[in-house]
Amino acid sequence: MVAMTSERLLATLKSALPSAMFEPSETAPKPVEFTLGDGPKVRLYLWTTTPDASATGRPPDEYKIQIIIPGCGGGSPQHFDLANIPTFVCGFSPLFGIFTFWEVQYHQDCAYSKNLQFKGSMIEAATISGWEIDTRKLHGGAVEVRAAIHPNNLDKFIRTSIEADTAGVVGEDRAKFILLKSPELEQVLTPKPGEVITLEDVERKRVEIQGTRLHRHPKFRKNVLALYGNKCAICGVQLSILDAAHIIPVHHPKGSDDDWNGLALCKNHHALFDSRVMIIDADLVVQTNPDAVSVLAEKNLLGGWDTTLKPFVGKTIQIQPTFAATDKVKLEAFKSALKLNSAFGIAAPD
Ligand SMILES: [Zn+2]
Predict the structure, then answer these.
(1) Residues 189, 223: one domain?
(2) What separation in Å is there between the alpha carbon of 265 and the centre of ligand 1?
């Protein structure tokens, strides 16, 4: 069984790229071709990014895609079609709602069923920043630039990668080029003519931005926990293990630290909410994400389901924010935040 069917992957890609015109294709999404609005034509190979539970001895933090290109049979090596237009190889993680990108030219002529790995911590970080760049030194000394990208930023990331190709930047220069175009940095770190910004400058600025976010956090946390009587909205747990979760991520243009954009959640339900295994719809009903659940089932990772999730699925959240009874405007803002969160570039379940 595959984690996400080709149809589901394609629907997810299309909902992340609302302005793209897709070509009809027998092999989609391995590969699919499309034109980005007024922009370039692109070829993209898309698989499901899943926890790498197959290989023993691998770090527990690894995720992967498994490359099987249609038409390549069981033969080795496999070939990506790289002719004429920019070509991308990527995965989509239904556990985080994040796309993971590799640089295709470093994986041309790969063995049949080859795995490409990705650090789980980077995918998780992208749920907060929306745009994470990692570099990995390959055999032979080349430095590959990998990216974890929120669906909301997918169009911009593809365009930025093509710009980097045109500029001919590779390795760490490419990593810096792409990071500087991230929504987080683009407004605050623009090189003046003749000025050289180093990768260290970029990293320093990112730490500073993330520090500001942490600094803002205590007030948001205090307000949100008070609204829920210091109880998890899902299970009612207190025990001083509560987090204030953002409903719309802070990197999103509509993300905010207003109290209607918060949910008090215990550690378990916060992680399930951020990883998109659990969704709360605009009617405040707890739902599960079928794509994420099928990945967990395939990897034998559903332990604890019966106690942690099942009792709450299909029911309204147990604890509602105190403004739900008193402030219609805030309640509407809260509901539309939940609606946006459950839609986020992710195709609606079939
Ligand atoms: Zn809970």
Answers:
(1) no
(2) 5
